[in-house]
Amino acid sequence: MQILSERAETCAELKFFEAEKWTAESEKQLIIKIQDLLSVARHCGDSFEVKINMEVRDVDEAVFLLKKKLNNHCEIKNQKLSLREIEVLGLIMQGFTNNEIAEKLFVCYETVKSHRKNILLKTGAKNTAALINHYHQTFFEKEAG
């Protein structure tokens, strides 16, 4: 990771991750480390750029597959959530299950499932992980700004 400052005309380089083999586990560790670094860097940085160096057997195949994946991005919809959906979203963010949310809100399980489905539709998120990412981008990024 290179850290630059145009104002002070200084530069520092930090090596933060290296794996002997590229495995699913090393990939998870890298993603966690990058998230940690970005959450710290966001508060002291004005912009950032990510560069990834890969050694591959077939460059054309790698470029094709990566471009295909990049073009298949998730689009966030800008539909407003109802007050109840916001309440359900808050409980989802706290890690409560549908059954626990139903008990807390004094509604049936099916109602919570319906709210959860509507939240996913309105945000364009495909699953709970994408929903949490949407939540962080929507609320935390605006608070920091």
Strand order in the sheet with the most strands:
1-2
Name the poorly predicted regions: none
Major sheet: 2 strands, antiparallel
Count the helices. How many?
Answer: 6
Overall outline = elongated
Query: In angstroms, what separates the terminal alpha carbons?
Result: 24 Å
Report on this model:
With 145 residues, this protein is mainly alpha-helical. The chain is 57% helix and 6% strand. The protein contains 6 helices and 2 strands. The chain has a two-stranded antiparallel sheet with strand order 1-2. β1 and β2 (10-13) form a beta hairpin. α3 (83-93) packs across α5 (109-123) and α4 crosses α5 (109-123). The longest helix is centred in the first third of the chain and has 18 residues, at 24-41.
Summarize the helices and strands and which ones pair or pack.
Elements: E1 2-5, E2 10-13, H1 24-41, H2 59-71, H3 83-93, H4 98-105, H5 109-123, H6 128-144
Antiparallel strand pairs: 1-2
Helix pairs in contact: 3-5, 4-5
Which tags fit this structure?
single chain; 145 residues; mainly alpha; two-stranded antiparallel sheet; 6 helices; 2 strands
Summarize the structure.
The protein is mainly alpha-helical and 145 residues long. It contains 6 helices and 2 strands.
